[in-house]
Amino acid sequence: MTYVYLILFAVFGAVWAVYFLLRRDLRRKLLFSSLISLPLGLTEPIFIPGYWVPQFKVIPLGEELFLESLLFCSVLGGFAATSYQVILGKKIFRLGEIHPALTLTAPAIFLPVYLPGGTQFYGNIAFYVAGSMLAGSALLICRLGRGAVAPILLSGVVATLLYTGIYLVFWHSFPELRASYQLRHFSGVSLGGLPVEEYLWIFAFACYWAPLYEIWRSRFPRL
User: Fold this and answer.
1) How far apart are alpha carbons 160 and 18 in whole angstroms?
2) Which of 26, 25, 63 is CA-nearest to residue 44?
3) 3-state secondary structure string across the chain
4) 75, 11 in Cβ contact below 8 A?
5) Contact criterion met (CB below 8 Å) for 8 and 72
6) CA torsion 12→29→205→10, rounded to 10°?
7) How far apart are CA 188 and CA 213, in angstroms?
8) Rounded to whole angstroms, how far apart are CA atoms 10 and 16?
9) Rounded Cα gap, residues 97 and 99, in angstroms
10) What is the CB neighbour count within 10 angstroms for residue 95?
């Protein structure tokens, strides 16, 4: 067995570093987005065993919690939030001002319901995670106005294409990664062999993460 999760983090970490070097104007957004996504790694136990049970080596921090979870979630936040801007040469979004508290909509929907159940949840939790983030994105778009539609949705599309391009290589290169997924709980729909749930959650994640920095910076200009 290999440290598949750690290697995956290293690859996305390398992409993150390239973004940081290429786009000086997005460095604060990269850092902010990665910092606020790091705690998501603490939710790993929610996904075990209903979504996956890693069949590769990991660095444990506790029961059903791994160092790789924190590292990967951190770099993924910056990657998802800025890929559209980096790839298409877009600058910091010009969005309407709304209260930053609205960016807490997704965790407000998701965490109270599923954290108490934790590892006892055996369904496909990806739909609930993605659903909460899509609901949060819809609320943000409604409050930010029509000008937020394109940057948020295109951020989701670009990040999804890049993420799945990399993940598909891992999916087909490491049998232990495929064996980790509890596919009996999945929809059975796949694209390129990768479950559609993976596409859905990264799209929802990128849409939700894309405007967070700009929203908070509008209230706290020093960010």
Assistant:
1) 18
2) 63
3) CCCHHHHHHHHHHHHHHHHHHHCHHHHHHHHHHHHHHHHHHHHHHHHCCCCECCCCCCCEEECCEEHHHHHHHHHHHHHHHHHHHHHCCCCCCCCCCCCHHHHHHHHHHHHHHHCCCHHHCCCCCHHHHHHHHHHHHHHHHHHHCHHHHHHHHHHHHHHHHHHHHHHHHHHHHCHHHHHHECHHHCCCCEECCEEHHHHHHHHHHHHHHCCHHHHHHHHCCCC
4) no
5) yes
6) 10
7) 35
8) 10
9) 7
10) 21
Interatomic CA distance for residues 64 and 53, integer angstroms: 9
Q: Which of 48, 41, 51 minimizes the C-alpha distance to 71? A: 41
Q: How many other CB atoms sit within 10 Å of the CB of residue 63?
A: 8
pLDDT at residue 128 above 70?
Answer: yes
Q: Report pLDDT for 67.
A: 96
pLDDT surpasses 50 at 58:
yes
Q: Two tokens at 213? A: 């920095």
Comparing CA positions, the residue from 134, 143, 73 lying closest to residue 101 is 143
Give me the chain's average pLDDT, please: 92
- Would the pLDDT of 68 be above 80? yes
Among 31, 87, 89, 42, CA closest to 213: 31
Neighbours of 91 (CB within 10 A): 9
159 token code pair:
């990040």
Indicate if the pLDDT at residue 116 is higher than 70.
no
